[in-house]
Amino acid sequence: MLDALRAGTREHHLDLERDLDLPGRIRSRTDLSSVLSAMLAGWQPLERRLAAVDWAGLRLDPRLGEATDLLRADLRALNGEPHDGEAGPERTDAPGFDRLARAVGGRYALLGSALGGRVIAPVVERRLDLPEGAATRFFRRSGMAPGRDWRDFRAALAARDWSPTELDQAVAAARETFVFVGRAAAPILGRRPAAPHRVA
């Protein structure tokens, strides 16, 4: 499963990284507030939907790796607020996770972001003269254990056999998740995301 997800989402992941341009676009506290609001606009509806999935078949916590509360804490630290209600009501364009394999794809996309965040956080802190963990809780995943979460996720996937159809479902949902995060962020960051790939 992990091999299929890595291979099947590489271009979508790179497209999103280019669109977000982190940490490059963060040059001020206002920039950081905009980025956090943009991430919240994507993360909140995705995490709500993933938490509603029945994960018992993989013995995983439905809230594994959740980081929405960290985004809100960072925004409060900056006296920022989510932009224009983007993170408020449920977005109807968020991917659906009606199959366990599709939920795996969505969780894969979100969990993987924690690994890059540990590289972004110290750069932002130095650039903005912020104490460690001040308004960078989301990037650092403060109070969480992203390495352990990733190991638990990987072990759960490896312990189950996945059909070709399920592999396709997982890859499609992961692609949709990357595209959705870019689309949710675009109005806040002022940059249109790259044209989405076809997600079969």
TrEMBL record:
GO terms for molecular function: heme oxygenase (decyclizing) activity. InterPro entries: Haem_Oase-like, Haem_Oase-like_multi-hlx. Pfam families: Heme_oxygenase (PF01126). One of its GO terms (biological process) is heme oxidation. It comes from the Bacteria. This is Heme oxygenase. It comes from Micromonospora kangleipakensis. The lineage of its organism: Bacteria, Bacillati, Actinomycetota, Actinomycetes, Micromonosporales.
